[in-house]
Amino acid sequence: MFSPEGPTLRELAVQALSSVERGYDLLAPKFDHTPYRTPDRVLDAVARALEPMGPFAAGLDLCCGTGAGAGVLARVCRESVTGADFSAGMLRVARERTPPRGPAVSWVRADARALPFGPAFDLVVSFGAFGHFLPRELPGLFGQVRSVLRPGGCFAFPVAAPPRPGSAAYWTLLGFDTAMRVRNALWRPPFVMYYRTFRLGDVGRELARAGFRADLHALPEFGCRPDGSPRVRLVVARASLRPPRQPAAGRVNS
């Protein structure tokens, strides 16, 4: 399926009926031959947007998968790059593909909701992973990111504009999320992967509560929608120099 090197329909079915961790362990050897891997043009666009903001010293790729995002960090970090993921299978593939040159690279098995690091990073990036977290988990997730960043550090991730209601993409994502909800209602363990739960307004509020000031940067490589708004933006959230206050109002600048 997808390509001759990609997973078969049977392999995808076995993955979908597994836990998230076990599913990605099974998918790891063929993951880069599926549409789930972040496209290179997205990675390149993010790297270009981050380069003027750096250089950074140490970077973390959160939920790194097979390590595609580590290449972005290698372009903007001088000293070290760390990839963290809770799938041993994905990390195994990432280790095999570690580039021989550039900053030192390490791979750590860890749950993003309980990161085993102190404030050791100047930049945290993440690509395509937020659908694995329920909305109620965002405060804890963003709090973990804040805890591993040095004061003034940066948390960056791309966000695509939601598809227009009634479009083919809209119905495709709605259908996928509905199927996943039915699957999780009928089958255990659950497989959390939803495309429509990571809403920018909610994200802005939770970032502010976690101690970030977030701004949006258009990625011009992807053009604009008919209304003139960018198709893809980069969220750049800066960690405040002081601990976050509770409660706090959130905002994301456009």
TrEMBL record:
Pfam families: Methyltransf_25
Every Methyltransferase domain range: 60-153
Family annotation (Gene3D superfamilies): Vaccinia Virus protein VP39
Keywords from the UniProt entry: Methyltransferase, Transferase
Domain of life: Bacteria
Molecular function per GO: methyltransferase activity
SUPFAM superfamilies: S-adenosyl-L-methionine-dependent methyltransferases
Single biological process term from Gene Ontology: methylation
EC number: 2.1.-.-
Entry-linked InterPro entries: Methyltransf_25 (IPR041698), SAM-dependent_MTases_sf (IPR029063)
Identification of the protein by name: Class I SAM-dependent methyltransferase
High-level lineage: Bacteria, Bacillati, Actinomycetota, Actinomycetes, Kitasatosporales
